[in-house]
Amino acid sequence: MQTSPGPAGAGATYRQIRTLPRRSEENLQITAFEPPSRLTVDGQLGPFQATTSYLLQPVAGGTRLTNAVELEPISALLRPVGPLVVPRIEKAVAGNLSTLRQLLEAGPGQEGEGGGSSRGLRAGPADVAPA
Q: The domain containing residue 58 runs over which residues?
């Protein structure tokens, strides 16, 4: 939900409510907004300061979506925990991109199959191209 006045764009703020792995509420800010190809969002995700970016590039037959996530523990005490979180984030990002690809390939009201990919804390590239 947008929490700042005005249109979506750089500087706009949002509140996100997640339920997995547990309920949490996060405040996010758009730091780069270049339709139709680039979006970057900063915010605190749990005990981490996060920067998430999305880059859309035309490719033969569709669009390539590259998603990058950079996490920095808020507390120095959490730095040793960071590497333990990476596999969970990789799995979640890959699952989300796979679901997105399936939805785009299937079209409205249908179910499809597809796959996504993530690599480390910087996920991507993942080809997400409608059939």
A: 33-127
